Amino acid sequence: MTVPNDIAGTAALAICEALLLALNDRNILPEKEIVGLLRDAADAHEYAPAGDHADKHAAVAALINGIVAGGNSVRRR
């Protein structure tokens, strides 16, 4: 049975957020590094070459930037 992309993407996002929280909680990666990692991921999509998927890249960048702004992947101390 195939899993629709939106379900697979939501599951992947939840897993990644949980991993980032665990890495921060265990003092493996500090908040600054996690936020930097997320910003790098957003930048990769924000500055992707223009093409057929420009809208998709913009939406991914906006989602990641929203996660950074909302603090979802780091427990703010």
TrEMBL record:
**Organism superkingdom:** Bacteria
Q: What is this protein called?
A: Uncharacterized protein
The organism of origin for this protein:
Roseinatronobacter thiooxidans
